[in-house]
Amino acid sequence: MAVISRGFRGRREQEPRLPPGQYLERGFPVLSAGPTPRADLASWTFTVTAAGAELASWTWDELQRLPADDLVRDIHCVTKWTKLDTSWRGVSVDTLLEGLPADEYRFAVAHCDGGYTTNLPLEHLRGGQAWVAYGYDGGPLAPEHGGPARLLVPHLYFWKSAKWVRRLDLLHEDQPGFWERLGYHELGDPWREQRYWGD
Ligand SMILES: Nc1nc2c(c(=O)[nH]1)N[C@H]1C(S)=C(S)[C@@H](COP(=O)(O)O)O[C@H]1N2
Ligand SMILES: [Mo]
Questions:
Q1: Which residue's CA is the nearest one to ligand 1's atom 12?
Q2: Rounded distance, CA 60 to CA 107, Å?
Q3: What is the pLDDT of residues 82-140, one digit of tens each?
Q4: What kind of fold does domain 56-192 have according to CATH?
């Protein structure tokens, strides 16, 4: 017995990469609740609102000129696949909220082309935890994966990473999004296996 546990010790001392109940996926599944919208970049904008009132807005070109991060993260879907080491390029939500009165708000809802929404506590979008991502694997983000731009919140289940995101609405009160209204967890931390209400 001692020999076996010594043999496995090296692996056990590493950070675990697979949250409870997840399996490793090598492909990149597409999960969309509707058809893939096609955006016209000439008229595309990303807007931050507070309770619906505009605080700031960027055109596609303006977004490209903001400082961007390149990051490699594991992503975890509530349907139980985990994909390791996905590489992204995008603008952090911290950068987008700079100079805006975001401290006054505790929650946010992401709004997308096609009508999808998802809600998050604002503290989970700040502090280097979330991006508006437009690059994947060295190229532009493919439309089926949320291009031209999607929210990327890799530390939460992937339904929080809203594809085709166009607006982030800051709120005082939490407001459930598309899947959250249908019974998915309001936070969705894969390491605590928060899949559904009450998890
Ligand atoms: N706008 C929009 N964003 C969305 C979804 C969606 O249906 N519409 N599905 C969510 C879910 S459930 C998952 S798992 C991921 C899937 O992203 P992918 O298709 O790039 O794998 O997108 C999330 N973001
Ligand atoms: Mo999902």
A1: 159
A2: 25
A3: 999 999 999 999 999 999 999 999 999 999 999 999 999 999 999 999 999 999 999 99
A4: Sulfite Oxidase; Chain A, domain 2 (3.90.420)
SS3 of residue 172 by DSSP: coil
Burial of 143 (0-12, 13-18, 19+ CB in 10 A): middle
Beta carbon of 32 within 6 Å of any ligand 1 atom: yes
164 C-alpha to ligand 1 centroid (Å): 9
Please provide the distance, in angstroms rounded to a whole number, between the alpha carbons at the two ends of the chain.
Answer: 36
DSSP output for 51-107: TTEEEEEEEHHHHHHS--EEEEEEEE-TTSEEEEEEEEEEEEHHHHHTTS-GGG--E
Question: Residue written as tokens 């997308």?
Answer: 112
pTM: 0.94
Give CA–CA dist 108/106, Å, rounded.
7
Domain ranges of the chain: 56-192
- Note the residue count of the chain: 199
Query: What tokens were used for 46?
Result: 């990303």
Query: Which residue's structure tokens are 């991060």?
Result: 69
- Ligand 1 mutation pick, 111, 158, 164, 196, max ligand atoms within 8 A of CB: 158
